[in-house]
Amino acid sequence: MRTKVTLPSGHVAGSMNADLPALGIIAGGGRLPAQLAESCDAMGRRYFIIAFEDNTNMESIANMPHAVVRLGAVGEALTHLRQVGASEVVLAGNIRRPSFSALRPDLTGTKLLARIGAAFFSGDDAVLRAVVSFLEDEGFKVVASNHVIGGLLAGEGVLGKIKPDMRAKSDIAQGLKVVRTLGELDIGQAAIVENGYVLGVEAAEGTDALIARCATLKREKNCGVLVKARKPGQEERTDLPTIGPSTIEKMAESGFAGIAIEAGGSIILDKDTVLSKADALGLFVIGVRHGG
């Protein structure tokens, strides 16, 4: 059965597939929320985006059905999702954690904070687990982004035309050890290693800032590897390690050799563009297994 649906934002969703449940996209930063929406358009699935002030890339979703709320307005966000009949939700993109005093939660937000508890002051995975549990108690089914878009997860092996040399392979092995330790502490998902030397690890600043910081520390051109992998036991529906075209551009600009990401546990946004850019700029991209 196919019906025509007009969403509350005033956008006409067009010809919709009523057999697919409406999807709520809770949008952080980056390109993933828009890519999820585009995938929904392609399959005729109804969707609605919850965008957060000072977090969501508004330019990328400007012509898509959405509502903008402040981060602490959890009740307002859930009301929008219920109004459009979204029974499934997906968490997409990173959200910068505000200070506790700046959050200004509404009543529902206060309930969420109570659920999060001390995790608010710990790692991201602990917070996201609490958010998932809260949303499910509110009646939503939380799904992984790779369940909405097929082919998002990185495959195993060399993914482009460029292959890592022996030195890069050694740096990848070292990077995986470092990232696993980071993950056990619920700190970050990435590290950059050059000739066995750890130039930097990812924390609150994100991957782009890690690359920029490490660019000032590297010693050789066309050397050094970015390694990204899940935290051990990570909640699979949230915050998987991700790279996109801008990651390739920043790595090339900084003179690094390539990227290793966890096969089956990391997301590649705009995969064809990522790999063509990597080939053109002389960077390798490889999917590696990691005991996450």
Explain what the structure shows:
With 292 residues, this protein is α/β, with parallel strands linked by helices. The protein has two domains: 2-148, Rossmann fold, CATH 3.40.50; 157-288, Cytidine Deaminase, domain 2 (3-Layer(aba) Sandwich), CATH 3.40.140.80. It contains eleven helices and 15 strands. It has helices spanning 32-43, 58-61, 74-83, 100-103, 107-116, 124-137, 145-148, 166-184, 207-215, 245-253, 271-281; strands at residues 2-6, 12-17, 22-27, 47-52, 66-69, 86-92, 141-143, 157-158, 190-194, 197-201, 225-228, 242-243, 258-262, 267-268, 284-288. It has a six-stranded mixed β-sheet. It has a five-stranded parallel β-sheet with strand order 5-4-3-6-7, with helices on both faces. A two-stranded antiparallel ribbon has the order 1-2. Helix 10 (245-253) runs parallel beside helix 11 (271-281). The N and C termini lie far apart (41 Å). The model is unreliable at 1-14 (pLDDT under 50).
